[in-house]
Design a protein that fits this description.
With 267 residues, the chain is an alpha/beta fold. It folds into two domains: 151 residues, 2,3-Dihydroxybiphenyl 1,2-Dioxygenase, domain 1 (Roll), CATH 3.10.180.10; 105 residues, 2,3-Dihydroxybiphenyl 1,2-Dioxygenase, domain 1 (Roll), CATH 3.10.180.10. It has nine helices and 14 strands.
């Protein structure tokens, strides 16, 4: 069995976290409270689903404004930058990756504070970075949750006005599709799909206007499962969010979603 079988989350890098949070609320998502990465000048909001989530990662003070995230956003623009695979045991997964011939760094402990109802806890993770996998403009790593009960501490975080229930697909643009597919740490997942295609093919699918504002290579689109695409479209119309309706769902252009196309499609 492959060492990695499921998607944990996708990371979207944004220049201004508060602005991105406001945008994604208008898109019909419920966001977790702001999490701060102490000492790094960055913070996040997460869009939680039962088995996947989206992390909006942005700069919140001058420390982060001078760091690697700012450098990447300034050089590449906003957009999705990373795929995090899920695993239950960091040490076992690290050993399995090495046995499979994938160069993996030792598990790295990370944490961020969470304050709910006046109580301060620490949300803890163990991440395994996969630095040698050269997927175009996309980091890949494994995220294990040491405190999973805190990651989704509130059920209402998973209740989205747009009716969203999960990340269904990650769409990656690549000039050399065959080479890019070889760089995927987990080409087949149980809870989401990863599609790698030439940008021209992706433009044919979503429309060239939808991809304007997305990077030339790397993650350019996310498909989100929703209960009723028509309801999602109505919400976008009320919020005056640019969008187009297709036979399969509703498309929000990258220029309106901080560098990544958001497609709402029926579950």
């Amino acid at each position: 069995m492959p060492p990695l079988t499921r998607l944990d989350h996708v990371v979207i890098a944004v220049k201004y976290l508060d602005a991105a949070a406001a945008t994604y609320k208008r898109l019909g998502f419920t966001l977790t409270p702001r999490g701060l990465h102490e000492g790094k000048g960055t913070g996040n909001h997460c869009i939680m689903f039962p088995s996947t989530y989206i992390e909006l990662l942005g700069i919140v003070d001058e420390t982060g404004a001078k760091g690697r995230l700012a450098d990447r956003v300034n050089a590449r623009g906003e957009g999705a930058i990373a795929i995090a695979y899920g695993a239950d045991d960091a040490e076992e997964t690290h050993a399995a990756l090495r046995a499979a011939g994938i160069e993996a760094e030792p598990p790295n402990d990370l944490s961020r504070p969470l304050v709910l109802d006046g109580k301060r806890d620490m949300v803890r993770f163990r991440n395994i970075m996969l630095p040698k996998l050269a997927l175009p403009e996309t980091m890949q790593f494994v995220c294990t949750h040491v405190t999973p009960e805190l990651t989704r501490a509130r059920r209402e975080w998973q209740l989205h006005p747009a009716g969203a229930t999960g990340v269904a697909e990650i769409v990656i643009a690549a000039d050399d599709v065959t080479a890019a597919k070889r760089e995927l740490a987990a080409p087949i997942l149980t809870n989401a799909a990863i599609t790698v295609a030439p940008r021209a093919d992706i433009e044919s699918r979503f429309g060239a206007k939808a991809l304007a504002g997305a990077p030339k290579a790397g993650i350019v689109a996310l498909t989100i499962r929703v209960n009723e695409p028509d309801a999602a479209a109505a919400m976008l119309e009320m919020a005056k969010i640019p969008h187009s309706e297709t036979r399969n769902g509703v498309i929000v252009p990258a220029s309106a979603a901080h560098g990544v196309v958001i497609e709402f499609a029926e579950d």
